[in-house]
Specification:
heterotrimer, A alpha/beta, B alpha/beta, C mainly alpha, A: alpha/beta, FAD/NAD(P)-binding domain, 3 domains, 5-stranded parallel sheet, globular, C: mainly alpha, Fumarate Reductase Iron-sulfur Protein, Chain B, domain 2, 57% helix
Chain lengths: 428, 755, 210
């Protein structure tokens, strides 16, 4: 049984993405006791699925490594994966939280040797790659996964597969009898770093994501561009696995739209600018990127990236919200239909591949949880004194880019510390 | 230090027992490593294995232990022992996982493992257990420079957490730029209307808070010391000075508005009815909810045109290349001033990209439209006074036509310039860039910043060897270079917040102030414990310096990326441990090798290099030394292992804190002791550097480029030493590079220095 | 002051808001162009909806009201379904067309206008549309020869409809009416009155401003 010591001077951080890791670390490195919970088997969240960060084009795993090292060397920080909050009661400085711990079926003995994965044959959609490929039923979610321990997919429990995995483990790390566990803890403050999820592109009917294979989402494109991703870094069309060279990006796919997400998701413009550089990286002058946009919101110094991309002759900008996508059956090419609003030019243009720059929505629907917290119309957590000792960090509060999410998480960490210091009666 | 007690633990799990001759490894540790206590275990990271080690630590008073198992990045929770020095021989990711499991490969694989045992033993022998520096104390007191909305927010947030604050403000009043505003942009749901700035209330709270001391009409005349012991001299306009000791500093020195006089095409200065956004705030304050009147003749404004991105987002000389982030929101807010007072007033906003992001931004845009503000995508080319009116020429990009329109008032949305203080790198950097040469060709930037960007007054007046202010990032902002770590600065314990860090609006500035306060509190708490700040947070080691050997060459004081080292009057280095990030760049820089850390020194690495068994020429087995940055290259190497990608069995890898810590003596020692090739792998350098210690990788590249002379003296081929920029994702490239070195050596022959 | 410099005033926008059905939505357009791209008749118009909205905001009264563009709308509702700002574009287009007609600015010889006129007149007679009469009128709208030609072309369809009792030839003679034609006419008159008062007021307001 997992046991956790927590008091009303403990900070609970919910969500182990970059915002949660940051909020937890900043507080722990300030000498506070922190429990960080994550519903997935590993930390990292959405940034772990990015190939590069804009505007520097550096690799998210690089910062992740530093954060993991901070985590490993901090004794004040306790991490629970596969854990979710089911209820919160109480008030500022004294919350009672119920946690649900799902079984990993793999204990601390695991050395990540991979013998279990070699032993099993069943495969499932790989959620790390947004289902673009399969993974084994005994798996390490990704190369940098922390904790560095394998997971047994709960769908094989009770089957021959599970027994095979168990038998293959040389260090007796597989425990198929693990059960869901409930844990009640007391904490002084809660940081909700529950992050975002990509908007469901199936809902954007005119864009045919559900029926045109060569229409994909920006998060899928990101995985594709990653040399460690499902296609080995090749930009392949799902329909025929041919390399896509002439690629269209549709901005505000779901964002700034009362039919879908009313808010602007902020990061998609700059993310697309970044993704055009992937095309250049692969093909040089041979590739083509075409961006359909309403406004290019490359705010503050991200403007530099916009200027740089604008100078690239292989990148075209079209001020237009695409009306619909159809498919050329013979080639599998998606055809974009619409109007360039700058001077009214109609177009009906085929591309090898179309990338929908999907918006961000809160990954947790707090209205469905027994948690008292102020939300805005889009479901993000508002800053509100009524929230007491509960604070949002990162994309739980708004659509943010990584830099702003971390900045926000750092601020949230202080807000939680203020609560804890008050509880402790700490006079500096 | 006197009583070092050594023990070594060899793991047989994860296939190590099957693939390697563990008894032989144990023999190497005993005979060559001279380790008295050696134990083998089937699975060292299991609870029994850990208990075995902990038991020995407790009963045998083991102080130094060597663990021969997996990578030092793996199983850290298990191998987490207090108050001991530990070295780890990486036999799993570093040996068996990168070598084929064949009979033919066996000999070389075993040799590889034996060398790692030798290296770990040698390293351990020279390691000491670091004790925290006592140099800093706990001063729960923060200095905030700047009394604008950012500074005031920082002060209040710090006070709320229980810390004392001294706030220094140059002018006679708190409030800064925000005090000049009539209203601020909506900052909470429903994000519809301009809101009171709340500045007066905020100022009152700051003034009356018992933990906050405010100095108006004052500047920071001198800052010395380090986190946990900063000594601040505050100069008062009245003539006096006062001093204050603080634990950490927040620089909230704000921004200056762009000088719109430069925008001759918009006739700024030619008519009082052509104003910038701050000018409009003044008019709105005058009107105070009533109709806004134009300055020239007091006529009520019937038509106002806002020109976005005036002198911004432009490569034209004298313009700002960046976007100031807030101006779209601000213009919509200002158009609302007119609409809320009188809906009949015509308000036109000419934009190229309307940047009102997030939930609030889009709502505010919609509210502006709802109030009847006209928007069009348009590029303004000129504003000319025309009798009493103004003529605005622009191209309407939607209707695709040139337009000549009139207005009573034109508002130019000009940008913000950071008050970053002195650009301490401005001159020397340019010289260096020319020397480095290569980066110049890639960047065709017309980059020379407009002169207005160079302020002459220092903000912090640091009495630091490397200059009076914090180093700046792009466009003169004192920002962090790191996406994941937005508060990183190159002056430990000093954090920039608000528009000095990055262009931003009030809401963001307040958020930013809170985050910077968090970092300041953290810095002072860690300094008190002698712990390093990010990215080696928690590290207790710090540079130890042997003054007797020092030649006062100043390399360490010049090269320290964090300005941690001062010079005394005889130009001996003076280390400031609180400022030090423990990267070891000083250790790498020192030509006489008098700088080291307790647990990471010229010897821990140097002896490990020398411990390797270099076979004689006849065996035809080359040896390659790879010094790998532990932040990016070493994790990548681990992943190479996890993916079972094979590489040459002749390489011996040593992780280093940063490539900047690599002292060239290690390379010469390696070559002298018969290594055939040396590879250095560090992070990307240059403008988009990914080095977590900013300059480390770049310095290493410069240093190794000078190794040619040494190679010449030794009569060795220059191909034998190679330096690479490696990213954490370079799993495919790293083995290639290693294997290429093996091929190169085959081509040029083994080193003649095998004894 | 010349007309040219009166651009980008709210004058015409206000007129539209006052007189055109759902006109108050025009200001909410953010010029994304999805309506223009979604319109099946798009390639045939001079100014697509999003451009019309921009023209209204640019104060181009004459150009908008004399334009044939809004007369092309077939009420397919694609634009409304896709508009990210939920503008009732179809309604605005019809509203604009109607307003232009009232102002006597609508272009002559618009087939859709002709159709609308016939449809309306037909409807007013008996309170319901007599499809057979309307159809015949349309066939013979451009002269006898063309009418006969069209009729012959449609012969098969007509016979088919007769067979399946989808068409009653007796309707051509007079046809049946709705239950309360008097009440309907009264209601329509009232509506007309309301519109006229509204328009007069808006005109007054506009004139007082300039």
């Amino acid at each position: 049984m997992t046991n956790v010591v927590a008091t009303n001077q403990t900070i609970l951080v919910v969500g182990g993405g970059i915002s949660g890791m940051t909020a937890a670390l900043e507080a722990a490195e300030c000498g506070k006791d922190v429990i960080l919970i994550e519903k997935n088997p590993s930390l990292g969240g959405r940034v772990a699925q990015l190939y590069k960060y804009f505007p520097k084009m550096c690799f998210p795993t690089c910062g992740m490594e530093i954060n993991l090292r901070r985590i490993k060397s901090n004794r004040r920080l306790r991490i629970l994966t596969l854990t979710e909050v089911t209820s919160v009661t109480g008030d500022t400085g004294n919350y009672s939280v119920t946690l649900k711990l799902s079984p990993r079926y793999v204990n601390e003995n695991c050395t990540a040797c991979g013998a279990c994965a070699n032993a099993v044959t069943a495969e499932f959609d790989n959620e790390y790659n947004y289902g673009l490929n399969k993974r084994k039923s005994a798996y390490l979610p990704f190369a940098m996964a922390y904790p560095q321990r394998y997971v047994i997919d709960s769908r094989i429990i009770g089957t021959e597969e599970a027994s095979k995995a168990k038998a293959a483990c040389p260090v007796n790390a597989i425990d198929l009898d693990m059960q869901v566990q409930e844990l009640k803890i007391t904490v002084g403050a809660i940081i909700w770093a529950t992050g975002w999820k990509p908007y469901d592109a199936n809902k954007i009917q005119p864009y045919g994501y559900d029926r045109i294979p060569n229409v994909i989402t920006s998060v899928e494109f990101e995985r594709m561009a990653d040399p460690l991703g499902p296609t080995g870094g090749k930009l392949l069309r799902p329909s025929d696995q041919k390399e896509a060279k002439n690629i269209a990006f549709i901005q505000c796919a779901g964002s700034r739209d009362r039919n879908y997400l009313k808010h602007c998701s902020r990061m998609c413009c700059t993310a697309t600018l970044k993704q055009t550089t992937y095309i250049r990286e692969k093909y040089g002058d041979e590739g083509k990127a075409n961006i359909y946009y309403i406004d290019i919101r490359a705010i503050d110094r991200f403007e530099d990236l916009y200027q740089k991309v604008k100078q690239d002759p292989t990148v075209t900008f079209i001020k237009s919200k695409v009306a619909s996508i159809t498919q050329d059956k013979s080639t599998g090419n998606p055809i974009l239909n619409g109007v360039n609003t700058e001077g009214y030019q109609r177009y009906s243009t085929p591309y090898d591949l179309v990338v929908l720059a999907v918006g961000m929505e809160p990954s947790v629907d707090f209205t469905q949880l027994p948690i008292n917290i102020t939300l805005n119309e889009s479901g993000f957590i508002e800053f509100d004194p009524k929230n007491g000792g509960q604070f949002a960090a990162g994309c739980a509060s708004d659509a943010l880019d990584v830099n702003r999410a971390v900045q926000h998480a750092t601020a949230s960490s202080l807000r939680a510390i203020q609560v804890i210091n008050k509880v402790a009666g700490a006079e500096a | 230090m006197a009583d070092k007690k050594f023990a070594a633990y060899l793991c047989k799990g994860c296939g190590l027992g099957e693939r390697l001759n563990i008894n032989q490894l144990a023999a190497v540790a005993t005979k060559e490593g001279k380790i008295p206590l050696i134990k083998q275990h089937d699975l060292l990271c299991s609870s029994e294995g850990v208990a075995l080690i902990q038991g020995d630590i407790d009963s045998e008073q083991i102080t130094h232990l060597m663990i021969a198992a997996c990578s030092k990045r793996a199983k850290t929770e298990a191998f987490n022992f207090e108050n001991v020095a530990m070295s780890r021989a990486n036999l799993r990711e570093g040996v068996i996982w990168v070598r084929p499991d064949t009979e033919a490969a066996k000999e070389n694989t075993q040799e590889m493992a034996e060398d790692y045992i030798r290296m770990s033993c040698a390293e351990l022998k020279y390691m000491n257990i670091p004790a925290p520096s006592q140099e800093q104390g706990r001063i729960p007191h923060i200095l905030v420079v700047g009394g604008g909305i950012t500074g005031m927010t920082s002060a209040l947030e710090a006070a709320k957490a229980g810390y004392h604050v001294t706030l220094v403000e140059k002018t006679a009043a708190l409030g800064g730029m925000a005090a000049q505003l009539h209203r601020r942009v909506a900052y909470q749901s429903p994000f519809k209307d301009p809101q009171p700035t709340g500045i007066a209330d905020l100022a009152k709270q700051v003034q009356s808070h018992q933990k906050i001391k405010v100095h108006l009409n004052s500047t920071v005349a001198d800052t010395s010391g380090a986190p946990g012991r900063f000594a601040i001299t505050i100069a008062h306009e009245s003539g006096g000075t006062s001093t204050e000791n603080v634990g950490a500093i927040i620089q909230a020195s704000g921004f200056k508005p762009y000088d719109a006089q430069k925008l001759t095409e918009f006739s700024f200065g030619k008519s009082p009815d052509i104003i910038d956004q701050l000018g409009l705030e003044a008019l709105a304050r005058q009107a105070n909810g009533g109709p806004i009147k134009r300055p020239s003749d007091g006529k009520e404004v019937q038509k106002v045109t806002f020109i976005q991105c005036a002198g911004q987002r432009s490569q034209t000389e004298g313009h700002l290349p960046y976007c100031s982030g807030h101006c779209c929101l601000t213009s919509v807010k200002q158009a609302m001033y007119f609409k809320d007072a009188n809906p009949e007033v015509d308000t036109l906003i000419l934009y190229t990209d309307l940047r009102m992001p997030g939930f609030g931004g889009e709502n505010f845009y919609r509210s502006g439209q709802d109030k009847g503000i006209l928007f069009t995508k348009g590029q303004a080319s000129s504003v000319l006074p025309n009798g009493g009116d103004l003529t605005v020429k622009f191209k309407d990009l939607i209707l695709n036509e040139e337009v000549e329109d009139t207005a009573d008032l034109v508002v130019l949305a000009t940008g913000m310039l950071p008050n970053s203080g002195i650009d301490i790198e401005a001159i020397p950097l340019k010289v260096e860039e020319k020397k480095a040469g290569d980066s110049a060709s890639e960047e065709p930037v017309a980059a020379s910043p407009p002169e207005t960007l160079v302020p002459v007054e220092s903000v912090l007046n640091l009495s630091y060897r490397q200059g009076k202010d914090m180093p700046q990032l792009i466009h003169g902002f004192t920002d962090s270079h790191f996406i994941c770590f937005p508060y990183e600065t190159r002056r430990t314990g000093i954090y920039a917040a608000g528009p000095v860090r990055r262009p931003m609006d009030i809401s963001q500035a307040m958020e930013d102030a809170t985050g910077a306060t968090m970092k300041a509190i953290q810095a002072l708490e860690n300094a008190a414990l002698g712990r390093a700040a990010h990215p080696r947070s928690g590290d207790l080691s710090f540079p130890r310096f042997r003054k007797e050997g020092c030649t006062q060459c100043k390399r360490c004081t010049v090269e320290c990326p964090f300005g941690a080292i001062n010079e005394d009057e005889k130009t001996y280095p003076v280390f400031n441990e609180g400022r030090c990030r423990r990267c070891g760049t000083c250790m790498g820089a020192c030509p006489v090798r008098v700088i080291s850390f307790e647990n990471y020194s010229i010897d821990t690495v140097g002896q490990a290099i020398k411990a390797v068994n270099v076979p004689d020429e006849s065996s035809e087995k080359p040896r390659i030394l790879l010094l790998a940055c532990e932040n990016d290259t070493y994790p990548a190497l681990d992943m190479v292992g996890m993916n079972r990608i094979e590489y040459s069995a002749y390489v011996r890898i040593i992780p280093v804190r940063c490539l900047g810590s690599v002292n060239t003596i290690w390379i010469t020692d390696a070559l002298n002791s018969g290594y055939d090739g040396v590879i250095l792998m560090g992070c990307q350098k240059g403008d988009n550097y990914q080095c977590h210690f900013v300059k480390g990788s770049e310095l290493a590249h410069i240093r190794t480029s000078k190794i040619d002379d040494t190679l010449k003296q030794l009569n060795l081929e220059r191909e034998r030493v190679q330096t690479y920029e490696i990213a954490i994702t370079d799993l495919a490239r790293i083995p290639q590079i290693i294997n290429e070195m093996e091929t190169t050596i085959q081509r040029i022959g083994l080193s003649p220095f095998k004894f | 002051m010349s007309q040219a410099v009166e651009k980008y005033r709210n004058t015409f926008l206000r007129e539209v808001e006052a007189n055109v059905e759902e006109g108050q939505w025009v200001k909410m357009c953010m010029q994304c162009g999805v309506c223009s791209g979604s319109c099946p008749l798009g390639p045939h118009w001079e100014h697509p909806p999003q451009e019309i909205f921009m023209m209204i905001r640019a104060n181009k009264r004459e150009e908008v009201l004399t334009s044939s563009s809004m007369w092309f709308c077939t009420s397919c509702y694609n634009c409304i379904a896709r508009c990210p700002r939920e503008l009732p574009i179809t309604h605005i287009m019809h509203g604009l067309a109607h307003y232009a007609q009232r102002q006597g600015l609508a272009p002559k010889e618009l087939p859709t206008a002709k159709f609308a006129k016939r449809f309306w007149d037909n409807l007013l007679k008996k309170g319901r549309v007599n499809e057979l009469q309307l159809g015949l009128q349309l066939y013979f709208m451009n002269g006898l020869a063309e009418g006969i030609k069209t009729s012959l072309k449609m012969q098969k369809v007509g016979l088919g409809m007769l067979k399946t009792k989808r068409m009653d030839p007796m309707e051509a003679l007079g046809g049946h009416g709705c239950k309360d034609i008097k009440g309907l006419k009264a209601a329509l008159n009232k509506a007309k009155q309301i519109e006229e008062t509204k328009a007069a007021k808006a005109l007054e307001r506009l004139q007082s401003k300039s």
